[in-house]
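Researcher: Last one for today. Full complex below.
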Amino acid sequence: NAGVTQTPKFQVLKTGQSMTLQCAQDMNHNSMYWYRQDPGMGLRLIYYSASEGTTDKGEVPNGYNVSRLNKREFSLRLESAAPSQTSVYFCASRTLTGETLNYGYTFGSGTRLTVV
Amino acid sequence: RKEVEQDPGPFNVPEGATVAFNCTYSNSASQSFFWYRQDCRKEPKLLMSVYSSGNEDGRFTAQLNRASQYISLLIRDSKLSDSATYLCVVNGGYSTLTFGKGTMLLVSP
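Model: Here's the assembly. Have a good evening.
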């Protein structure tokens, strides 16, 4: 059982380049999330998908787009990378039913992105 | 007031010590509460959920005070392996979680 798989694990981009971060989960979770983590800032929500077919902005969505490809996969795209997007990106998933409100997220291992 | 606030760290304690982490949250409608642990350069992992009546898991005890919007985590008999950053987490909207910035714990021999 792989849980949440993120690719790539590391990436260096030049300013203005584009890329897509991939995320897949095999736990049959309904909801998926993208966070970024910066020193001193904690984890901040970029976008989320509460269920297949829906996506919503989080706290810091500017400069990003997302696609919920199917129930398993949720990708994050940087159309024109900027140095301010240098960060560690985490994908997470969760299932939401009444009794599982006491379950948190399962995270992927992260993507370390550097934009130069 | 920030949504989830935690004690600034780091906390430096010797092995065997008892250490307490505190957290306050601003959304009185929050229903789900968690403590996560994050090791250096790793992803956060769920340590324990926090229930209204308080709950214990081995050396770890979590408490919730809804009236004061306060959550705590107590670690007894600290081990070297407990060294990590502890994140207080509260549900933001129905389907999202909001994370505190975390408190680093360093347990020394």
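DSSP finds no helices and eleven strands in chain A. Chain A touches chain B at residues 31, 33, 35, 40-43, 45, 48, 50, 58, 90, 94, 96, 101-110 (CB under 8 Å).
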